[in-house]
Design brief:
By secondary structure, this protein is mainly α. About 75% of the residues lie in helices and about 0% in strands. The two termini are about 30 Å apart.
Length: about 270
């Protein structure tokens, strides 16, 4: 008897989450998110000794400004898409490489539920590592006196990161389920297509995730100093509502396409 879709996805999620948390990719993820934490520690040490960590045009950037720069330049534009590439493209590719896909597909569960369960495990795994790192960075660089007034900003940024992981993960889950060399295509999209078209005039930037994701950033980050300059350079953004709706549509559409690809594709395991 075939399991229900939801129950099958939950079973695959339970199985995959533990594997992901103890995989080599999680070590890589911890090293990646450790970079901003190390920078935050340096900023805190310099501040303790009365030295300024960051200046723009002779103007000192405060703790929230530093946090905004780290969020903008490292987490949103690098860490989130990179982790989504390495995890999302591997959701099915790892099963093929380890030759364990046959065992999953011979179980009485819908094929699409396998990908959905693994996608949810990816999302939980990355959130469990990335979000605590962001909180650690926040408490390191933001002075204690500013925490009360800026804590809402932190909450908004955490939600933004979770949304970014979900959307990019869905896109690269489809790439991994549909194409034979998904990692190469994912890296080309992340480091080639998106950075290039975002700085070009015209409509092509609308075919990126970052275009809609960065439209939400000014609502979460301070608009002063270097952060403002960066936002002004990259941003010709849609409205908040349309950006959020488009991101949710992208996530749902690509996750659906990924499940359809898994259900229809004939996977051949190399001997």
């Amino acid at each position: 008897m075939t399991m229900s879709y939801a129950r099958a996805a939950r079973r695959v999620f339970d199985l995959s989450l533990g594997e992901m948390l103890w995989s080599r990719r999680t070590i890589f993820m911890a090293l990646v998110v450790g970079g901003p934490v190390l920078l935050a520690i340096i900023v805190r040490v310099l501040d303790t000794f009365g030295m300024t960590a960051l200046r723009v045009n002779g103007r000192t950037i405060g703790g929230m400004g530093v946090f905004g720069v780290l969020m903008w330049m490292l987490f949103l534009h690098f860490i989130v898409p990179v982790l989504a590439v390495f995890y999302g493209t591997a959701l099915m590719a790892d099963e093929i490489e380890d030759k364990t896909l046959t065992y999953l597909f011979t179980r009485p569960i819908p094929r699409g539920a396998v990908l959905v369960g693994k996608y949810l495990a990816y999302l939980a795994c990355t959130i469990l590592v990335v979000l605590p790192a962001v909180m650690l960075v926040y408490f390191l660089v933001v002075p204690f006196r500013e925490i009360g007034s800026s804590f809402g900003t932190l909450v908004t940024d955490l939600g933004l990161l979770g949304l970014g992981l979900a959307v990019y993960g869905a896109v690269f889950a489809f790439v991994g389920a549909f194409f034979k060399r998904p990692l190469v295509l994912g890296l080309a999209f992340t480091f080639g297509w998106e950075p290039t078209v975002l700085v070009l005039p015209g409509y092509l930037k609308q075919f990126t995730v970052a275009y809609y994701l960065q439209a939400l950033v000014p609502h979460a980050l301070p608009t002063e100093g270097l952060t403002s300059l960066l936002q002004g350079f990259f941003r010709t953004a849609p409205s908040l509502g349309s950006a959020l709706a488009t991101l949710l549509l992208i996530a749902v559409a690509f996750l659906w396409l990924a499940t359809r690809a898994v259900e229809r594709r004939e996977y051949v395991l190399e001997q």
